[in-house]
Amino acid sequence: MRDRVRALEQVASRVSELDRLRSSRLCVLAPARESGFQRAFLVSHGRVHERALPLGAAGRMELESGLAIAASAEVSYAPEDAAALLVVATALRHPAPELRILPLDGAVTMAA
After folding, report:
1. Is the pLDDT of residue 111 over 60?
2. Residues 83-100, buried b or exposed e (16+ Cβ, 10 A)?
3. How far from the centroid of its chain's Cα atoms is residue 106's Cα?
4. Which of 78, 66, 83 shows the shortest CA–CA distance to 25?
5. Do 43 and 24 form a contact (C-beta atoms < 8 A)?
6. Nearest alpha carbon to residue 24 among 38, 43, 7
């Protein structure tokens, strides 16, 4: 019985974490494998939108495009979106030093 209660508590914790992430609006910037690029993971409405951002003006345009897509998305409860959110949750719990986590506000993200 104790194991079942513990398992139920873990499920409740994950569901609570997913609910919190569904209401979050943030951008996780990470280095890309390709030289001259970085990766942006835009979290909004329970979805994670990934963009490759070249450095400079082209990256700003790509980021603006990603922000528009993230803003227009509907809330998702799909399993594949939940899985992506859980990956982001892990990065948020234990962020690597090279990650930058920013609010998904166009001005704040652009300034960074």
Report:
1. no
2. ebbeebbeebeeeeeeee
3. 15
4. 66
5. yes
6. 43
CA distance 101 to 28: 5
Spatial neighbors of 25 by CB under 8 A, at least 6 apart, are 43, 44, 70, 103, 104, 105
pLDDT, one tens digit per residue, over 29-71 is 999 999 999 999 999 999 999 999 998 888 888 888 888 888 8
Mean pLDDT computed over 75-85: 92
Q: What is the C-alpha R_g of the chain?
A: 16
Question: Into how many domains does the chain fold?
Answer: 1
User: Residues 6 or more apart from 67 whose CB is under 8 A from it?
Assistant: 42, 104, 106, 109
Residue 43: CA atoms inside 13 Å, Cβ hemisphere, count? 27
Owning domain of residue 68: 2-111
